[in-house]
Amino acid sequence: MRTDVEFTSGGVTLRGWLYRPDAADGETPLVVMTHGFAGVKEWVAPFAEVFSAAGLACLVYDHPKFGTSDGEPRYEVDPSAQIEGYRDAITFVQRLDGIDRDRIGVWGTSFSGGHVLVVAATDRRVRAVVSQVPTTNGWANFRSSVPTVMLPAVHEAIAADRSARASGKPHQTIPAASNVPTDFVAMPGIEVYDWLMANGPQVPTWRNEVTVSSVDKFQAYTPEAFVQRVAPTPLLMIIAERDTLTPTDIALRSYADALEPKRLVLIPGPHFAVYEEQFERASGAARDFLLDTLA
What we know:
Elements: E1 2-9, E2 12-19, E3 28-34, H1 45-53, E4 57-61, H2 79-94, E5 99-109, H3 111-122, E6 126-132, H4 138-145, H5 151-166, E7 173-174, H6 190-199, E8 210-211, H7 212-219, E9 235-240, H8 248-257, E10 262-267, H9 279-294
Parallel strand pairs: 3-4, 3-5, 5-6, 6-9, 9-10
Antiparallel strand pairs: 1-2, 2-4, 7-8
Helix pairs in contact: 2-3, 5-7
């Protein structure tokens, strides 16, 4: 039972899918879900299908400036706008018939795994939060992926983009990932490139592209400042044991900083294992946690 829906956030229309369980009895708890850095909702849909089959409604949508959602410039990763999108999504679903407005959870993965920490810490309408393979510290994550020798060139490109935009030129863009190690990209590494190339091109709205200013915003992103404020909302963190994109050690430090009630699930493999060979384990852990906390 999936229907197309849309709502407004930051003056633009965000579009997605509403999943309702087949055998809903009375008002149903709902999970708000969206994708990570440079992603699309199609990559989140398999998790929503697992949750919906277990009796949870789900709203899956594209961030502003990505996928089927509106917003300019295209392919701009703006964490502030994306966090506000979650909050507006909660408002939207609370007004829907058949949804229990007092049993709303949020689920985020990779970059949006950091967003849900901020949302849960600042919006007490959230009753449960799942943070999967998350970016929990923008600067630490940025430094882990950008070699020191390349930092001056990256900051020079960011400054040049700012200057060009001040002169009226459009946002400059770079690849989200590349198989050429020396390319200036948002997410370095062949692992990222291979996964994006295997899963992106079949989605018509996806592009291997982000604005340069997305990288600027990424390095200034600070979800770690909010992690202790998530409590008393129950938190589940799902962390991959060999994650180099959102490094395991950084995520584990944030989990250690979080207050109870909290749960940790460690998934064998690298970052993208949660979408592939470890999908059943990752989605099952989130499903069980959401049923426990929202039922």
